[in-house]
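User: Earlier you gave me the apo prediction for this protein. Now I'd like the version with adenosine-5'-triphosphate bound, so I can compare the two side by side. Same sequence as before, with the ligand SMILES added.
Assistant: Got it. Here's the input I'm using:
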Amino acid sequence: MNTPPARPDGDAPILEVRHVTRRFGRFVALNDVSVAFRRRRLTAIIGPNGAGKSTFFNVVSGAFPPSEGAILFEGRDITGLAPHGFARLGIAKSFQITNVFKQLSARENVRVAAQMRRTRFQLWRPRAAYPELLEQADALLERVGLADVRDKPASDLAHGQQRALEIAMALAPDPTLLLMDEPTAGMSPQETGVMMGLIERLAEERTVILVEHKMKLVMGLCERLIVLHHGEFLAEGTPDEIRAHDEVRRVYLGTA
Ligand SMILES: Nc1ncnc2c1ncn2[C@@H]1O[C@H](COP(=O)(O)OP(=O)(O)OP(=O)(O)O)[C@@H](O)[C@H]1O
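And here is the structure of the complex with adenosine-5'-triphosphate:
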């Protein structure tokens, strides 16, 4: 069992995971994990295969509830809330490009995502909101570096661009907290560099938590890292602290 980290500066965490356990049948994928995330920080959850990273991502993004324990967002207990409830509170997840409508242009994809956040009343009069929605879509595409390809069908975009498009869609509701699952998976080194630059910029304006298998990748990017191993909390710290952590080196790098 680990206890949530102390808060010497009194900065209330935006997200708290308290003693969370997640079972699949008799298998324990997450075991009594407690961590707290501070605002406007970029934190990575890392760990070797089967560490429980995806399970953690799913639990904190509301895809499924923990078997035990609690999730608190801005001090409010949101354990067991439906996924759309998480979204309404300002928690967005970016996890796959299957959300992208391949036949629509990049711009239309983001416009639809921006429109989805509106109330049902506003959805009934899309025409009136259309120019404003397109303006928002253009600003988001600019933000993720896709302004030049905004009129191309999503199917014509490179893998890295499709992933960036999916992030623009996740950003449409202007979330407070952005959760990303392996944002550079399947990318070329060049695409990875572009994506890392984008993540760094996004983290300047909101809280970003990313789940990542490749430890080296996040070392130069994140201020804090949380290490899971066999579904348990193993360590938390700055990149330097994690690099020097004997147990992490042993289980993760195999070099201690
Ligand atoms: N729906 C499920 N049913 C049964 N077991 C599951 C389920 N989801 C995950 N697991 C098991 O839980 C453990 C943790 O899986 P998880 O996908 O969370 O790890 P991970 O750290 O994301 O791994 P990887 O880096 O390989 O994706 C694994 O042993 C996995 O087989």
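For your comparison, keep in mind: Residues 41 and 207 are 5 Å apart (CA to CA).
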